[in-house]
Design a protein that fits this description.
There is one protein chain. The protein is an alpha+beta fold and 622 residues long. It folds into 3 domains: 8-196, Heat Shock Protein 90 (2-Layer Sandwich), CATH 3.30.565; 203-329, Ribosomal Protein S5, domain 2 (2-Layer Sandwich); 334-406 and 417-622, no CATH class. It has 20 helices and 25 strands. A hairpin with a 4-residue loop joins strand 23 (513-516) and strand 24 (521-528). The longest helix is centred in the first third of the chain and has 18 residues, at 161-178. It is globular.
Length: 622
């Protein structure tokens, strides 16, 4: 078959297949053009989910009449200098408008601030219409009708109107978070309207815009992030561990103001929250990365949603470290939504949880977690038995199950002694978790602060305390290792073997001793004692894959942390154990001093707070 030159229309339609996936892609490209033009107000109107109509109107700088023809020509742009590595705008490829015009009926009407009138140009399925005079205010209106009419096969892959409208709304929200000083409105054929009033570019204004998009609950249940490392600046907000979602749709990431869906950033967020969230729950995050455009490549894909960092390990380490530090520094906090759930349960007619409710939920989850997450770990047979690890600075006394017998309450104290205890308890009311008042169902501690009532799950809380102590002990010194009788030889691609050898010192700190064993192989001579019998071949290959992706060795650390979590569960105060008042108060004080103690090792809340105002509302006092 002879080689021939493709027509301009065919070239544009091929480009459209990469850039224009669905109506939401059109909205994204047009809104980005409006923002690059300095718009302070952007209005979007759709019909038929965007397949029948998309209209984007802005009050930006506009396009001069002589440049309208260039605006719809491929590879024509006003946003790119001679340096492809210095990209400081959202758009830069010069492909969006001609690609859209090749598969739809497109019209552009624009007027600059210095022009007395507007001008309009159109494209129908790739056929350019002549420029003509028009009436319009300052700015640009781009109208797209009958999307994909020129490529009807693409229409078969579109989802329903509601799904396409939802995707468009998500695109607008993602962009709007990065531009709080711009007013956005989105109106659809179902008469629903999304309005995002402009705030300002300050930190407070940015958070108000985030609240507009993610809900008013987010600011009260979030932690501010602000960190810098080697010229990379990370800012934003992440949710506290007890405020989560069932999916990752409310995780927003931006690189130099550009919304991205980057696997490295998503993986770093998962890693940062690994210790405090259940495996089926996701944090809510808004993170902004600001760095030199020369060290990030945004020209990876025509849709510009993917990016590549010159030093991915630096970026991942910054995100993980900053989020973990922020979680540790934020102290103990309960989600404000927990009180709403408690109040709903108290109201007349609330559904009963029955046998599968909260009273048994933690233990059933815990059982399934240990059944799946700690396969191969038997505390009785482990070379390093739980809570007998010999780490300095960790007090193991009083944690074993046979030392947790119910206390004998003994004779009641005298009236004077009880009065003295009451006075001491009063001083604790100002603490975050207050003073313990009672223990109910031999598992829940009821505490009082000056303005709230707090219920603590004693087993979940102490499990977290023991886990954090184990982790601190585990990572404060080299992990004990056991010598293999015969070294395990692992065959790997040469590049993987080289990467492992480069990280051998770090791996040794975690108890894994490896060394090169000829070309394309490593010899494993020691493994962490805590792992007991383990699949060395699979562990080494998993580490090699992780180092290739992220330049980290978190896989091994994660496995050791899982063992520590299992050991913490075996060594924590069990449900059904009676506690004295001083023990309950001691547990509350330890929770206040331990980072992450608002959730247990499995991500469930360790306590719920109900404000006095909420209690009074339940009884009709407010």
């Amino acid at each position: 078959m002879p080689i021939r030159q493709l027509s301009e229309t065919m070239i544009n339609q091929i480009a459209a297949g990469e850039v224009i996936e669905r109506p939401a892609s059109v909205v994204k490209e047009l809104v980005e053009n409006a923002l690059d033009a300095g718009a302070g107000k952007v209005e979007i109107v759709t019909a038929g989910g965007g397949l029948n109509l998309i209209r984007v109107t802005d009050d930006g700088s506009g396009i001069p009449e002589p440049e309208l023809a260039l605006a719809i020509a491929r590879h024509c742009t006003s946003k790119l200098t001679e340096d492809i590595h210095d990209i400081r705008s959202l758009g830069f490829r010069g492909e969006a408008l001609p690609s859209i015009g090749s598969v739809s009926r497109l019209s552009i009407r624009s007027r600059t601030a210095t022009s007395d009138s507007a001008a309009e140009i159109g494209i129908e399925g790739g056929r350019v219409l002549p420029v003509r005079p028009a009436a319009a205010n300052r700015g640009t209106t781009v109208e797209v009708r009958d999307l994909f009419f020129a490529t009807p096969a693409r229409l078969k892959f579109m989802k329903g109107e509601r799904a396409e409208s939802s995707a468009t709304s998500d695109v607008v929200k993602r962009i709007a978070i990065a531009f709080p000083a711009v007013r956005f409105t989105l109106a659809g054929s179902d008469r629903s309207t999304l309005e995002l009033p402009a705030t300002d570019d300050s930190a407070e204004g940015s958070l108000r815009r985030v609240a507009q998009v993610m809900g008013a609950d987010f600011p009260d249940n979030s932690i501010a992030i602000d960190a810098m490392r080697e010229g990379v600046h990370l800012t934003g907000h992440v949710s506290i561990p007890s405020f989560t979602r069932a999916n990752a749709l409310q995780q927003y990431a931006y690189v130099n103001g550009r919304p991205v869906r980057d696997k490295l950033i998503a993986g770093a967020i998962r890693g940062a929250f690994a210790d405090v969230l259940p495996r089926d729950r996701h944090a809510v995050t808004v993170l902004f990365l600001t760095l030199d455009p020369a060290i990030v490549d945004v020209n990876v894909h025509p849709a510009k949603a993917d990016v590549r960092f010159r030093d991915p390990g630096l970026v991942r380490g910054l995100i993980v470290g900053a989020v973990r530090q922020a979680l540790a520094d934020s102290g103990i906090r309960a989600a404000t939504t927990g009180a709403a759930g408690m109040m709903a349960a108290f109201r007349p007619g609330a559904a009963s949880y029955g046998h599968g409710g909260p009273a048994n939920g933690h233990r059933s989850y815990e059982a399934s977690y240990h059944a799946s997450g700690s396969a191969g770990f038997d505390p009785a047979r482990s070379p390093q038995r739980p809570l007998d690890m010999g780490f300095e600075g960790f007090d193991q006394r009083g944690l074993r199950e046979n030392e947790q017998a119910a206390f004998d309450a003994g004779p009641l104290a005298s009236a004077d002694a009880r009065a003295g205890q009451s006075e001491a308890a009063e001083t604790l009311l100002g603490a975050v978790l207050g003073a313990a008042r009672a223990q109910v169902h031999e598992n829940y501690i009821v505490a009082q602060t000056r303005d709230s009532l707090i219920i603590v799950d004693q087993h979940a809380a102490h499990e977290r305390l023991v886990y954090e102590a184990l982790k601190n002990a585990l990572h404060s010194r080299a992990v004990p290792s056991q010598m293999l009788l015969l070294p395990e030889i692992v065959d790997l691609p040469e590049e993987d073997a080289e990467r492992l050898a480069m990280h051998s010192e770090t791996l040794a700190r975690f108890g894994l001793g490896i060394e090169r064993f000829g070309p394309g192989a490593v010899a494993v001579r020691e493994t962490p004692s805590m792992l007991g019998e383990t699949n060395v071949q699979q562990l080494v290959r998993d580490l090699a894959d992780e180092i290739a992706d992220n330049d980290t060795v978190e896989t091994l650390k994660g496995r050791l942390d899982k063992i520590a979590a299992t050991m913490a569960c075996h060594g924590s105060v069990r449900s059904g154990r009676l506690l004295k008042a001083e023990e309950m108060n001691a547990l509350l004080r330890q929770m206040e001093a331990t980072p992450g103690s608002g959730t247990c090792n499995h991500g469930r809340p360790t306590y719920i707070e109900l404000k006095l105002a909420d209690i009074e509302r339940l009884f009709g006092r407010r």
